[in-house]
Amino acid sequence: MKDVLDDIERWRASGRRVALARVVGVEGSGPRGPGAAMAVSEDGEVAGSVSGGCVEGAVVTEALDVLAGDRRARLCTFGYSDDEAFAVGLTCGGTIHLLVEPLDW
């Protein structure tokens, strides 16, 4: 989380809205554990990582949807079996659960 705070503060100081995605659970293997965070500004700038790259694009889409829609937090789940992950070139399978929420402070 500390790795995204400077970016969040800079974006908020310039008047931009921000969503935060945090890993809240992992089943099986996963590249990042609970607490890993990624912040997304309303114009699509990204800081941090929740998956080491394998689902980052989908997480950005969820974050932007949270900012553009009803601005309510949501729980998102992404996952692959180990066999599926290997077939598409990922290093691990497993499932990650993320809380994606707007930062309105």
Q: How would you describe this structure to a colleague?
A:
The chain is an alpha+beta fold and 105 residues long. It has one domain. Helices cover 30% and strands 33% of the residues. It contains three helices and five strands, in the order H-E-E-E-H-E-H-E. A five-stranded antiparallel beta sheet has the order 3-2-1-5-4, with helices on both faces. The relative contact order is 0.25. Residues 85-90 have low confidence and may be disordered.
Topology, element by element:
Elements: H1 2-13, E1 18-27, E2 37-41, E3 46-48, H2 56-68, E4 74-80, H3 82-87, E5 94-103
Brief characterization of the structure:
The chain is of the alpha+beta class and about 100 residues long.
CA radius of gyration is 14 Å
Instruction: Quote the average pLDDT.
Output: 85
- What is the beta-strand fraction? 25-35%
Provide the number of structural domains: 1
The description of the largest β-sheet is:
5 strands, antiparallel
The global form is: globular
Q: From the structure provided, what is the oligomeric state, counting identical versus distinct chains? A: single chain
Total number of strands: 5
Please provide the ordered H/E string of secondary-structure elements.
HEEEHEHE
Number of helices: 3
Taking pLDDT < 50 over at least 5 consecutive residues as the criterion, the unreliable ranges are 85-90
Helix content: 25-40%
Gap from first CA to last CA: 16 Å
| Structural class label | alpha+beta
Strand order of the largest sheet: 3-2-1-5-4
